[in-house]
Amino acid sequence: MSSAEPGGAAARSLLERVFREEAGRLTASLVRLLGDFDLAEEMVAEAVVEALARWPSAGPPERPGAWLLTCARNKAVDRIRRESRYRDKLQQVAALPESVDREPDDRLRLIFTCCHPALDADAQVALTLRAVAGLTTAEIARAFLLPEATLAKRLTRAKQKITKAGIPYRAPEPDELTDRLQAVLRVIYLVFNEGYFTTGGEAGVRRELVDDAEWLAGLLVHALPTQPEPLGLLALIRLHSARWAARLDNRGRLVPLAEQDRSRWDTRRIRSAVALIERAAALRRPGPYQIEAAIAAVHCEAPSWHATDWPQLLTLYDMLAALDPSPVVRLSRAVAVSHIDGPATALRQVDALADSLGHYHLYHAARASLLRDLGRTDDARQADQQALKLTANPAERALLTARLQDVPARRHPS
Length: 414
Description:
Blueprint: H1 6-34, H2 37-58, H3 64-82, H4 87-94, H5 106-114, H6 121-131, H7 137-144, H8 148-165, H9 174-196, H10 207-223, H11 228-242, H12 267-281, H13 288-301, H14 310-323, H15 327-338, H16 343-351, H17 354-357, H18 361-373, H19 377-390, H20 394-406
Helix pairs in contact: 1-2, 1-3, 1-5, 2-3, 3-4, 6-8, 6-9, 7-8, 9-10, 9-11, 10-11, 11-12, 11-13, 12-13, 13-14, 14-15, 15-16, 16-18, 18-19, 19-20
């Protein structure tokens, strides 16, 4: 069967899905085996090429991820065997058992390696998103608002620095953990965010990335049980994932929080997340992830959108803004203000953020919502159109397109 026939298309589709789900795990496992980022990524890529050649005719294996890892490992052994300067590594890899089972903390160790203080903060995040989360260079470049070529050079420099500096592939000792904690928390949060609002590809959401982020945050909580911020991050991820079943409609469009069917929310996960927040609060060292989790908990515990405790949310946003006075936090705060002081007051606060957030699609989507509340339908359409231009996420685009089709244009009275 040729790859052009239906079976070949199905095999390619399966391979693309498996690669998206497994790339970070495969790379982390091979980095552990080889100690070389570039070689690990190259072997994973060669395994994918091998799968493209075999799967359309032979059919996909029972365990596609395990097949790819075994193939990549064997190709690494062949490569090292051909290059005498890697003789020591050959002995190390060849002595490993044939089992393709991955150690459970491979990716956490890889995150700590990527977040070594010898690398600058942006390089830490970019390298981790590439090696651990399996995001493409193009996806990471969009997240950083950088040209793809610039981001590729940054990744190359970071990997070279790890090799030249001899940065070990291991989790730090307990007295070193806290020094890297903020960088690791940031990376896990970004992995979660990429799953929750995917920046590239055909899928609007990627549940496997959200699950990976929750798993990694759980490992971090286990490694640092007396640190409150990992508890806050784990709670935040659980609260958002508890609403997963209600996030998309049957057309794949995002369902706004106000319109979600709350009976579909996972109340067990919500309770477990609230317990994590309480455990973190008992440590009496508040931080931004704990506050973000508390904000999410207020939404999850409200019986309906109209019963949301907006004054409590505004207090929490004030606390968050004191720690993180970023324009995005101020935008979210303005949304809470709209439910207390009205959309006109909130719109003035949102408009004040135009210079810093004009490139951000959620800024325009928030403006559109406020403008609709004020009856300025034509202005709202223009804001939604701008939001549509600025997002590549298919679920968000479907929602915005539906809004533009459902709401007729109307001239605002002068």
